[in-house]
Amino acid sequence: MVYQRGAHPRSKELSGTKIMITRPQPYCAPLAAMLESAGANVVLAPMVRLLQPSEKAILNAIARTVEDFHLLVFASPAAAACGIAYLHTWGPIPARLLIGAIGPATAAVVKRWGYEVDIVGGAPYDSEAFLASFTSVGLGGWSVAIFRAQDGRNFLANMLRQRGARVTFVQAYRRGGPAYANQVRARRALCNGVDAVFISSAEAFRNLIDALTPRKACVLRRTPVIAGHHRIAAVVRNAGVQTVVVANGPSDAEMFTAAGQWLKSRSGLVSGSEV
Questions:
Q1: What pTM was estimated for this model as a whole?
Q2: Which domains, ranges and CATH numbers included, belong to the chain?
């Protein structure tokens, strides 16, 4: 089954468990604090670094001509944080522009900059859910900018184009591989034993696999992985991980809830299952 939203695990319900988080550094702390408040021992081993974009030509062009756009879409919290920060070097976002966020975590970043969010995608916070949140809006002749990293799925752009929009991808930041110290930390944690690994992106999982020796990779495949989306879970499962737990979404609360429910049911987990 896929874990649904629910109450957070009761205080200390994760007592005695050891959980490794692989999120980028800026987004580890709140989830770690939630897990630690429930009694878990947390290992932070970010498997993705957030870097400056490799090229800023399009970013500069968007900043100069932002008034010509109708909708700005931010594909992740990092895209919102980096994209808005850069736009602000040229001036505030014009009030008439609509702003879209792929999910509530991204919307929260936008709001911290003082902007209202007009379109917020629902669970599981992907392109499909975002599109479903404004199906009645006609986009003929609209100019849309999608702020993201250096690559990603093209589904959202393709669907917006089918609805008549002109779409521009904007590289707001760049994802890089993990720092050497975090690779060592991950290897050491798996050597010492962890009860679960939290994976919030397929790229983080691939980087984790690349950072491991063949022997440690075998240990990872025997370690339960809590994934933030069914597509991430598919990547994890295809790599041979025996137990994959799919949270309702990648947010702190949903990953936290999945951890608590997984702990309750792990005595009944079956090898090779999706929980």
A1: 0.86
A2: 18-48+178-268 (3.40.50.10090), 52-175 (3.40.50.10090)
